[in-house]
Write the structure tokens for this entry.
Amino acid sequence: MTAPTAPVLAVVEHHDGRPRASALELLTAGRALGPVHAVWLGDPPDDAGPLAAHGAAVVHVVPVPTPEAGLPASVAAALAGLAEATGADVVLLASGFGAKEVAARLAHATGAALMVDASAVERDGEGRVVTTQQAFAASWTLRSAAQVGRAVVTLRSNAVRATPAETPGAAEVRVAAPARPADPRVRVVERTARPASDRPDVGEADVVVVGGRGTQGDFSPVEDLADALGGAVGATRDVTDEGWQPHDVMVGQTGVTISPRLYVGAGVSGAVHHRGGMQASGTIVAVNTDPDAPIFEFADFGVVGDLAEVLPQAAAEIRRLRGQA
Amino acid sequence: MKIVVCVKHVPDLQADRRFTDDGRVDREGVDGTLNELDENAVEAALRLVEAAGGEVIALTMGPDDAEDAVRRALQMGVHRAVRVTDDALAGSDAFATAAVLAAAVRRLADDGPVDLVVTGMAALDGLMSVVPTLLAAHLDLPQLTLAAELSVADGVVRVRRDLDHVTEVLEAPLPALVSVTDQANEARYPAFAGIMAARKAQVPVWSLADLGLDPAAVGGAAARTRVLEASPRPPREGVVITDTGDGGRRLAAFLAENGLLA
Ligand SMILES: Cc1cc2nc3c(=O)[nH]c(=O)nc-3n(C[C@H](O)[C@H](O)[C@H](O)COP(=O)(O)OP(=O)(O)OC[C@H]3O[C@@H](n4cnc5c(N)ncnc54)[C@H](O)[C@@H]3O)c2cc1C
Ligand SMILES: Nc1ncnc2c1ncn2[C@@H]1O[C@H](COP(=O)(O)O)[C@@H](O)[C@H]1O
């Protein structure tokens, strides 16, 4: 096999001028496929250092001057232009409902294969892009190959562990043409960033503690355990419908899809809709008073017990083991 | 207002869902239903015509069993339904699906323009959530996807959508395409009258030829990806203990032993 030379574009997400965790994961995955270029939408990064460390040879900054220029069709058109200009044959994005829209538009515009929610991406002996995906609430694993020369792939967070490259990239910053509104008919009336929590983001965290109806609305044991583990707090649909937690942290097939290294479900029954969004997690731990709760059928470790007792004790013990008590 | 709502027949979430040896969703002998999330799409469409007048047409692409999906939509109250099917469609990817649905929407416009296309946010089999976007691209309609709230007034459609870190309100003039989330509404249960009407309704079936589409452009052979391998994941070999006063400490010990406290 000849070494691939076509660049790989990794569309990196960022917040407050700094790359999100998913950005470094994308670069790590991308550099295994070819020379990786970061694509940074919006105002330029404060510091391209972390992108360089994770192997970015180039950072394409694509200004987004208006809210309409940030809509999926507009971003996709800008990315199609960059793919054309650089000759990139793979574009990587972090999975999420918004990103899937960008990916679909981009694949439509460029004739590329579309592979969403991948848990791994590689090239086969002929250089074709091959992805691994989980289906049916992660009860099946699929491997698929692109049948055309270009592929747009969305990668789940935590699918790869972000690791610095052996040789850092140059991260040469190039400002590209700004994204422009692709559809003059669509108007953004309002765009509000929702406040971020002090805890890690549920979609990105490598540890997530989910509380269900069994909390009866008292999330303090769930938050305590999440903090002891340095993790994020998640919730089931019943919890967000009750207004006990914001909708943003709902885990499941219509909420956030997560695959953290460690998932802890407390007072969560394990309904199929919830499973669809978390069953690809590395290790699954459940605490539930009902020994017949479905979650025990797919947990690696389960405790039949009251979360109000078990979680605080676990949190205290974890702090002690970590020498933080 | 004339609304087309796209509905898909998918394997029941509670059934033993599986793939065939050639990597397609196994639809034989697995109970199927109307994709739950498409009930929200049907509901949204019905509410709009109940308020403003007009008709709702349910559209599906799929084999004979898929008629159940449009029957369910008819029971809920849509006025008529059509199904596209063709042997050449087996193994179609999202691009082919969108191209076919787009051609069917165009044909439905023969007897009067379509004002709005409504879809669900995702089909619960593949959970791809890309057909609405591709359909909007094919039909060159403004795309207002993932609506958690939806309204139409004075020929303008407005949606609120919650993305990962932002909430947006978007507006566009009709005609447009909207996909709705399960937050958008609570889908109704069919009433007796709807069940009776659905029983009598004829569901026309259209082939690729009826839509003037080339069979070579759809189906497994035209798909841009190919499944190499589909394998059931081995069940997890879990341990379940009962808390007798030290459950929390044992949980912590399990995490420590498995390197999860690092
Ligand atoms: C179209 C559709 C989409 C949906 N999408 C999602 C989704 O994306 N995400 C999602 O989560 N849900 C979703 N749902 C809802 C889903 O079907 C379940 O209803 C929901 O996940 C159940 O939440 P739960 O586990 O918190 O509550 P329950 O099912 O009520 O379970 C509560 C559990 O807590 C246990 N318990 C009670 N007290 C205690 C205690 N003191 N200590 C420990 N355990 C206790 C009980 O034994 C029980 O097992 C969807 C539903 C529909 C119809
Ligand atoms: N075969 C189909 N027939 C009709 N509508 C479909 C079909 N496939 C997808 N859709 C519509 O597109 C939405 C998203 O599907 P998907 O992109 O496959 O997750 C669904 O909720 C349906 O409204």
